[in-house]
Structures are given as C-alpha cells and as structure tokens.
C-alpha cells in the first residue's frame, strides 16, 4: 500500500490505522482477515452490478473476483468524511494475469456501525483496462 500521495485524510489517527489494516487485507487478498471487518449483513456494491448482500455472499464473490488478477496495491489520494462514513479516492495498481501493470482510478464509500464494523461498501472504477 502506498500513502505518500495522501493529501487529505479526515479520519482520526485510530480509525486511519484501522482503515490501513482493512485495505491491507484487500491488497494481500486475505479473505479471512477481510471478513473480520464486516457485519454479517454487510452489503457490497461494485459499479453497476447488483448488490451482494451478507458476509456469506461477499466472501465467495471476492474470492472469485480476486482470482481475475495477480495483485492489487492501493495508492491513497484522499479520504473524506467521518470515522463511520467516509470515501476513499485512490489509484489502484493492478498486475493482470498476463503480467501487465494497470493503474485505475477508484473511489470506495464505506459505512461502519458503532462497533466499527463495515455495514456497506460501494466501490466504483472503470475496470475495462484490467480485463481487456
């Protein structure tokens, strides 16, 4: 994960560290760790696809999606919002299955409950280059 381009961060220091751990679970494709950040009834929305509802559905969805590329590294640009409701603007550096490097602009909206678990995540990026 890269943080050297992070310009604005509106999270508290404690929640920023939490978010870095959350993103690291994604970057390392660690499904078990990632699932520990989610509520049982979490909803995930990716671009214009139908919502994926519940942790039991999200984990296989991500397991399948993460096999479509070799690696991912988040490059944080801005984090706007509060500790419970925030949006990340990032560059996502992918390595495709054919070894080609692709960088995509992305945003991710995250909602958390009072216990600090993710209740909803919505991410938007044009993945055309990743899969062409």
From TrEMBL:
It comes from the Bacteria. Coiled coil: none annotated. Gene3D superfamilies: 3.10.450.50. InterPro entries: NTF2-like_dom_sf, SnoaL-like. Residues 21-119 form the SnoaL-like domain. SUPFAM superfamilies: NTF2-like (SSF54427). This is Nuclear transport factor 2 family protein.
């Amino acid at each position: 994960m890269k943080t050297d381009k992070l310009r604005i961060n509106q999270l508290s220091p404690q929640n920023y560290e939490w978010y870095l751990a959350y993103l690291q679970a994604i970057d390392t494709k660690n499904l078990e760790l990632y699932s520990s950040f989610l509520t049982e009834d979490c909803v995930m929305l990716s671009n214009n696809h139908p919502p994926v509802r519940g942790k039991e559905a999200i984990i296989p969805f991500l397991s399948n999606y993460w096999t479509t590329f070799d690696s991912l590294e988040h490059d944080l640009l801005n984090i706007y919002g509060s500790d419970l409701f925030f949006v990340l603007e990032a560059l996502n550096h992918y390595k495709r299955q054919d070894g080609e490097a692709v960088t995509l602009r992305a945003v991710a909206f995250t909602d958390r409950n009072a216990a600090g678990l993710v209740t909803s995540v919505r991410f938007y990026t044009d993945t055309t280059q990743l899969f062409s």
